[in-house]
Amino acid sequence: MDIKKLLPIILVTLSCSSFASDIGEGFVQRNAEGETYLYTTQTIKKNEKILVQYPKENGDIGCCKVTSSDGKLLPQGEVTDELNGSDVHVYKLKLRYTKPFVGIAVIGAGASVTGSATGLEIKNRNTSVKTCLSQEGVHLFSTKTGDLKTHLYLPLGYDVEPTCDSPGK
Question: Fewer CB within a 10 Å sphere, N or C end of the chain?
Fold first, then answer.
């Protein structure tokens, strides 16, 4: 096959592969001042689509609202990457919550999710993102085809009733 005919096919394939890997996850949290922040190991672009859980009026957790960030990296917070030790980036989100809240965020233009209070499934990606509580913090686990992909930890600074069975469960 002629290289001129093969090159567009290669470029399209690489483009699709790059697009597929752009989906990430993280914590979304409202601070005491009412600002909402995203904690993730992903690099966020300005106005990139971010799907976030949110608190409903009745106290349940809803899925999902679309928001974005200005893409400006803020100083690192208390969230840690327990799996890889990578830096956890902090971004201010445009969406604001009215009550204190910690939830899950899914990042990327191609993200489509279904969810419950403690977990989200990223459609067509074989990926699930779940949260649970240990004695003093919140864990976020992301698994792809059953393999642990992400483990973030957000310390709360006070004791809570643990709900974690084991990583990724």
Answer: N
